[in-house]
Structures are given as structure tokens and as C-alpha cells.
Amino acid sequence: MRILLLGPPGAGKGTQAVLLAAHLSIRHVSTGDLFREHLDHGTLLGQHDRARLRAGLLVSDEVTIRVIQERLTRADTRGGFLLDGFPRSLAQAKALDGMLAASQSRLDAVLGLEIAEAEVVRRIAGRRLCRNEPAHIFHTEFSPPDVPGLCDICGGELYQRPDDSEATVRQRLEVYGSETAPVLDHYQAQGIATMISALGQVTEVLNRALLALGKDRAGGPGGDDH
């Protein structure tokens, strides 16, 4: 199968992408992983895009499309793949349609994770990281430390990353709504997009995705998808 998984920040998309690809025995293709690979090897990404990536900005459409196009030519994607992080815009979606059509293929399904803005803010803005390495993660509501502001494991100071602040999270959601949400409209018009709730246990969300794809459900317990 060739699948695209979409979802706003805080929807648990990264977790679901890994689990879903493993359950379906297809290759998980993550733009984040690809960008890190190219940065490590000094390929494809120019100085401008390396600087943008390290500053937390989106890489240009041109470079992103080239990176994905190269990745989808590798042998390990011939049996199917799950795209995670691409396409992020309507222009990228149309480019993806074109590159798949050139190989006489197309996406089989597009899954969109649905979650309310308030829940996203609740999940991300409450996250706290330890300043020591490895950076253990806590949450002010879901997994609070025994002593406020201190790591349970090493006693290090806990802090909130700047991009986890409520204002930044809401800004990221606004960008998602204006740039990435139209990608769902594009694929809904093609009749291959399905929306599923991102609320609940990890396995519950995975089972919704599998049901939408007409596949067997996963078994076993799942943790909270926060």
C-alpha cells in the first residue's frame, strides 16, 4: 500500500506512522529522517536549506520534493510506503501526484488525524524536558515530576522548550490550517481521504487507522497518545 498520514502538531502522527508502517510491513518515509540523513551526508540540501532546517523553519518546496522523489526510487519502497511529513502544502501534493503518475502508481489512501486545538495546546504546552542528557520528558498534567521543576531520574532542572509555549503551538496550528489542511481537501476530492480521531490510547488510534484501511486490527495495550 501507498499511504499518506496527515495530522497537526500534537496529534501523535509520528508515533502512529511508525506503528502503522510496521503493522502493514511497508516502509516508513519521514521527511524529518530524510533531512537529517542529507545533513549528515552533505547531500541535496544547500547552505540556505541547512540553515533554515537548523533554525526550525520549513525547507523549501523545491528541495523537499527532490528529497522525496529520490527516496521513492529506492528499492525498499517498491512494496509500499507510508509518507510522514510530506506533502505539507498543496504544491507538494500536486508534485507527489505527478511523480507517482510518472511511475504509473498513485496513493491508495490518505489518513487525516483529527484533534481539537485545545487538546493540542494541552498536550504540547504542558511538556517539560530535563536539561541533562538524556533529556527525560515529563508533563505537568499527564506525567508530572514528584518535585515540581526537577527531574525524577537525575534531579536536573526541567524546562519548557520555546516551541512548546502556548503562543508558538497556536502559531504552528495556524500554519498547519493554512498550508497543510488544503492537502486533505485535495485528496478528499479524489475520494481517497479518511479522517480519524486522534484521541485515546495509542492502540485505539492505530485500530481506527487500520479499520479505515480495511485491515486487521492491532492487539495489545497502548499508552496514552500525548
UniProtKB/TrEMBL annotation:
The answer to whether the entry has keyword Kinase is: yes
Which ranges carry the Adenylate kinase active site lid domain? 127-163
Binding locations of AMP: 31, 36, 57-59, 85-88, 92, 161, 172
Sequence segments annotated as region (NMP): 30-59
**Signal peptide start and end residues:** none
Q: Name one Pfam family in it.
A: ADK_lid
The top EC class, named as a word, is transferase
Q: Which reaction does it catalyse?
A: AMP + ATP = 2 ADP
Domain of life, per UniProt, equals Bacteria
Tell me which InterPro entries the record gives.
Adenyl_kin_sub, Adenylat/UMP-CMP_kin, Adenylat_kinase_CS, Adenylate_kinase_lid-dom, P-loop_NTPase
**Swiss-Prot/TrEMBL keywords:** ATP-binding, Cytoplasm, Kinase, Nucleotide biosynthesis, Nucleotide-binding, Transferase
| Binding annotation for ATP | 10-15, 127, 137-138, 200
| GO molecular function annotations of the record | AMP kinase activity
Q: Where in the cell is it found?
A: Cytoplasm
Protein EC: 2.7.4.3
* Pathway as given in its UniProt record: Purine metabolism; AMP biosynthesis via salvage pathway; AMP from ADP: step 1/1
The primary site where this protein sits is cytoplasm
What family classification does the UniProt entry report for this protein?
A: Belongs to the adenylate kinase family.
What quaternary arrangement does the UniProt entry report?
A: Monomer.
Physiological role: Catalyzes the reversible transfer of the terminal phosphate group between ATP and AMP. Plays an important role in cellular energy homeostasis and in adenine nucleotide metabolism.
Please report the name of this protein according to its UniProt entry: Adenylate kinase
